[in-house]
Amino acid sequence: MDSAVNNMVSASMAMQQVQVSQQAQLSVFKQALDGSASQIAALMESVSMDSQLATSGSVGTQINTTA
């Protein structure tokens, strides 16, 4: 009977250690994802979605139809 209880306690302790390890890994993974998300958000904000077309001059305002 004592060996069964000892085995059960050992198994329970091992499962707790695995759970703590998995929680730590998940926390690090979430931090990495949050860091990536903030970097991507900053990159997307830096990219202008409005096209910058030329409004004056000879470059970008005329189409050469004889080429």
Core attributes:
rod-shaped; mainly alpha; 67 residues
What can you see in these coordinates?
By secondary structure, the protein is an all-alpha fold. The protein contains one helix and no strands. The chain has one helix at 2-46. The mean pLDDT is 84. InterPro entries: YjfB_motility. It comes from Halovibrio variabilis. This is Motility protein.
How does the SSE layout of this entry go?
Blueprint: H1 2-46
Question: How would you sum up this structure in a few lines?
Answer:
This is Motility protein. The protein is mainly α and 67 residues long.
**SS element count, helices:** 1
Q: Can you tell me the residue ranges where pLDDT is under 50 for at least 5 consecutive residues?
A: none
Amount of helix = 55-70%
What would you call the structural class? mainly alpha
Q: Main sheet?
A: none
Name the shape in a single word: rod-shaped
Question: Whole-number radius of gyration?
Answer: 30 Å
- Average residue-wise pLDDT: 84
Order of helices and strands: H
Strand content: under 5%
User: How many individual β-strands?
Assistant: 0
Pfam family, one: YjfB_motility
Protein name: Motility protein
Organism: Halovibrio variabilis
